[in-house]
Specification:
Layout lengths: L7 H10 L4 E3 L2 E3 L6 E5 L6 E6 L3 H19 L3 H17 L1 H12 L3 H21 L6 E4 L6 E8 L3 E4 L7 H13 L3 E4 L5 H13 L7 E3 L5 H9 L6 E5 L2 H11 L5 E5 L4 E5 L5 H13 L9 E7 L3 H13 L19 H16 L3 E4 L14 E4 L6 H4 L6 E7 L2 H9 L3 E2 L1 E5 L3 H10 L4 E4 L14 E2 L2 E2 L12 E8 L8 H6 L1
Parallel strand pairs: 7-8, 7-10, 8-9, 10-11, 12-13, 12-18, 13-16, 15-16, 18-19
Antiparallel strand pairs: 1-2, 3-4, 5-6, 6-22, 11-21, 14-15, 17-20
Helix pairs in contact: 2-8, 3-5, 3-6, 3-7, 4-5, 4-7, 5-6, 10-11
The structure holds adenosine-5'-diphosphate.
């Protein structure tokens, strides 16, 4: 892992060897009308690269390639698919410096965090490589003792993946790896703000031996016009999306036409609940991780800090002190702990939420205004005594802002935590095990972090309830999203002609 500052020359050399075309049917191509778009460094607003801008015809080409590769890919032995994933894991690990730097350049996260994402993203390749040979069905005797039941699994078929910019590598491998393991082919449309990492990943998967047509990557600035017709095309069988709830809702509606299987990882509004009996040092450590990891630009970021009134002032004091000590800067600087937000729109949104909270009576304890100069920087910010009804408690902040609310009882904490249409993750700090278990049943959530500020793990099922989504990614559950169940009923192998018929009637 790189620990010294990265030189301009290293950056230029990496960008020069990163592919910038469309990857369709195993070949790098231009878009059908030759158009390209620019990728910008959010830390200084400079142009990093220009990338082919897929048009609707390119989308159709990509789906055609995935569709024609599907039968032979589905027939590939599981061990072969597993070995490709294992090789991809090795190559991603070998190229960790390149992938991490690319993510820092196009997305802004500090290099150390980008390395963390490489390790996390690579682990999906390893995990699902290990799952591929274990796909199995079952054989059983029907309850009446007569017929035999055979249940098998088969790949769903061609998939469309639409991924966000906040985790450019891991959001891609979390979908690609189980699809490869299950024997599905795919078209990936990465976020237009961060296409470079996905393109380098495609090159790595090609080097790992993934056959032509199995993975196709089509960056585009025309997301709806390129993916819309694919979703309505009968050759597609599944859509997996990670992004905002508003876009996800629209994609679910569009998927009804072809009755597509859908997996949706949508927005969150995670409560971070600190009880009066919590280990406050551990809670502040967890809060920092849950709030500042990825600059707060994560659907699992702590969005609301609900703190028992008895410990609220002390928790606020310690959190503010720690957040004040965080170094803001370009992600390539080894001292940086917090990079820029993704773009100007993100800065305006976060600023607006902070201003709205202050206008409604919250106290600004730290930060609060965008950093002047080039780049989309917003400083660590703490708001205390945020009143109910402030928009910042209802909307996904996606920035380094911690709004604090005091509560008096467990019932009140549960009521506040559940008072949102989202249900992705909750964080709870308490030393009371009974309370922890109670909350695991009372909180409306897909995931719960108990005395930890980080829950994401490739071996665990990631996903939410309510408006946070459908389906799970990772864990043993993750591969099921890419498998269909097929049932074969057999006649009773012991029956002789006529005998069973007579005995049943
Ligand atoms: P975010 O706010 O995190 O950018 P979005 O939901 O807007 O979340 O974007 C997530 C992904 O969805 C990106 O790849 C984006 O290009 C894509 N996207 C946005 N709108 C649409 C749409 N109407 N149809 C298909 N994809 C879309």
């Amino acid at each position: 892992m790189t620990t010294t500052a990265v030189t301009d020359e290293t950056e230029r050399a990496l960008l020069a060897r990163t592919p910038t075309g469309l990857y369709i049917d195993g070949r790098w191509t231009a878009s059908e009308n030759g158009s390209r778009f620019e990728v910008v460094d959010p830390s200084n607003e400079s142009v990093l690269a220009s990338v082919a801008d897929a048009q609707p015809g390119d989308g159709r080409r990509a789906l055609a390639a995935a569709h024609s590769a599907q039968p032979s890919w589905a027939g590939t032995p599981p061990r072969v698919r597993a070995e490709i994933l294992r090789q991809a894991f090795e190559l991603v690990t070998i190229r960790a410096d390149d992938l991490a730097l690319l993510m820092t350049l196009e997305m802004g996260k500090p290099l150390a965090e980008a390395h963390g994402e490489v390790a996390y993203g690579a682990e999906f390749l390893r995990w699902f490589g290990e799952e591929a040979p274990r796909i199995s069905g079952r054989y059983s005797i029907a309850p009446d003792g007569a017929n035999r039941l055979l249940v098998t699994k088969r790949p769903v078929g061609p998939c469309l993946f639409i991924t966000p910019w906040n985790f450019p590598l891991a959001m891609a491998t979390r979908k690609i790896a189980p699809a490869v393991a299950a024997g599905c082919t795919m078209v990936l449309k990465p976020a237009e703000l961060t296409p470079l990492t996905a393109l380098l990943l495609a090159e790595i998967l090609q080097d790992a031996g993934l056959p032509a047509g199995v993975l196709n990557v089509i960056p585009t600035t025309r997301a709806a016009e390129v993916t819309g017709p694919l979703i309505k095309d009968g050759r597609l069988r599944k859509l997996s999306f990670t992004g905002s709830t508003a876009v996800g809702q629209r994609l679910i509606a569009d998927s009804a036409d072809q009755v597509l299987r859908v997996s949706m990882e949508l927005g969150g509004n995670a409560p971070f609940i600190v009880f009066e009996d919590a280990d406050l040092d551990a809670a502040v450590d967890g809060a920092l991780a849950a709030k500042l990891r990825n600059g707060g630009e994560a659907c699992v970021a702590a969005n609301r800090f609900l703190v028992h009134r008895r410990v609220a002032p002390e928790f606020a004091r310690r959190l503010t002190e720690r957040m004040a000590g965080v170094t803001v800067g370009r992600g390539t600087d080894p001292a940086t702990r917090l990079g820029p937000l993704i773009n100007e729109a993100a800065v305006s949104k976060v600023s607006g939420l902070v201003e709205g909270a202050v206008a409604s009576g919250a106290t600004l304890a730290l930060g609060g205004r965008p950093v002047d100069g080039a780049g989309y920087f917003f400083p660590p910010t703490v708001l205390t005594d945020v009143p109910a009804g402030a928009a910042i408690l209802d909307e996904e902040i996606f920035g380094p802002v911690a709004p604090l609310v005091a509560f008096d009882t467990e019932d009140e904490a549960v009521r506040l935590a559940n008072a949102t249409p989202f249900g992705l993750v909750c964080f709870v700090y308490t030393r009371d095990l009974d309370r922890g278990l109670r909350l695991s049943e009372r909180l409306e959530t897909g995931m719960l972090g108990l005395n930890t500020g980080v829950v994401s793990n490739p071996a665990a099922p990631f996903g939410g309830v309510k408006h946070s989504g459908l389906g799970r990614e990772g864990g043993r559950e993750g591969i099921e999203e890419y498998l269909e169940t097929c049932y074969v009923g057999f006649a009773d192998p012991f029956a002789r002609d006529g005998i069973w018929f007579t005995s049943e009637t």
